[in-house]
Amino acid sequence: MIELKVDVDPAEVGFDAERLRRIDKHFDGYLERNLLPGYLAVVTRNGKVAHLASNGMRDIEAALPVETDTIWRVFSMTKPVTSVAAMMLVEAGLIDLKDPISRWLPEFAEPKVFTVGSSVKMVTEPATEPIRLWHLLTHTAGLTYGFHRTHPVDSAYRDAGFDWGTPPGLDLAGFSEAIARQPLLFQPGSEWNYSVATDILGRLVEVVSGQSLDAFFTERIFTPLGMTETGFQADPGALDRLAALYVPHPATKAPFRHDEMGNVGRVAPSCLSGGGGLVATAGDYHRFTQMLLRGGELDGVRLLGPRTVQLMASNHLPGGVDLETYGRGAFSEAPYDGFGFGLGFSVLEDPVKAKTLSSAGEFAWGGAASTAFWVDPDEDVTVLFFTQLLPSTTYPIRVELRNLVYQALVG
User: Could you name the domain of life of the organism this protein comes from (predicted)?
Assistant: First the structure.
């Protein structure tokens, strides 16, 4: 187990300790107003943990507090892990960013694109461009999520059983085949839309590598990095450390237990979701972000080359535009103004347009239960935030946390 603790005087790495304590005060205010069950925040610079802030409960009903070894459902923070896995295969020469995915997933050989109609009667046309690997990594493939509820194709996903999950008993191969039967929202590469693309990417990793996604993750990423408590299921002996999942009560906004989705991480899933299936401790995910910050290497273990990480953390939207310009106005785990998108991460292009204190070049992502991380190569800073409140749009936690971290960076 990775022991997560403060290991440097904040002043030694340019932080004002008193200002950092504003993080604690701010999120303690959420607890005082009974808006969050509990939280844990980690701020590092130069590879050293400068601040840990935590309070509240990992399980309100059982009166179990948040601790540094609490296990969290990271949901869409699984996506960067899957993206790293795919880029490891690119580095191995097994696949190229421009390759059509139908080379390995024949169900995507002849995609159709929605033109007009409703979810029950659609008019489609053939795709003029194959779905390529980089389309999956950048969410420009034309795929979607059923929970968006903004387009007839979203509705078709829900009708097929894909809303906040997958139909019971469906494995990842079956998931890919079922999604391939749905039309695309747009021609591949022509727009950005947050989607199940990373789940399809996970299936691609399986086929290209010849391993199940969980085996690849464990053998190639988690074990080398010492992430012993990250996976698609918490160890049965550690279930008491898995935080409960909550939603805001519709009347009071108080955390209301949501055990239906709370089963994620408690039992082995039939579908290994590369887009949202992992659970992890803060210490484990901290190791993952440190590897990214250091250009693919940590403690002598190299997963990726530095040029690969640099490419992943670059804006791949055509013309270098931001998500506001190129994206559809559906839910995402990142803001749109001033943010582009790389190979698995949002990328901050323009802090002024984004109205944030963060640095250009920051790359980041978050999860549906209001978890988040970012990596700031310019300042050598990483930040993690964990709680278990669905959905992540409930409160502006990520915006607030950015301001709270950077107002404390004084050197």
Answer: Bacteria
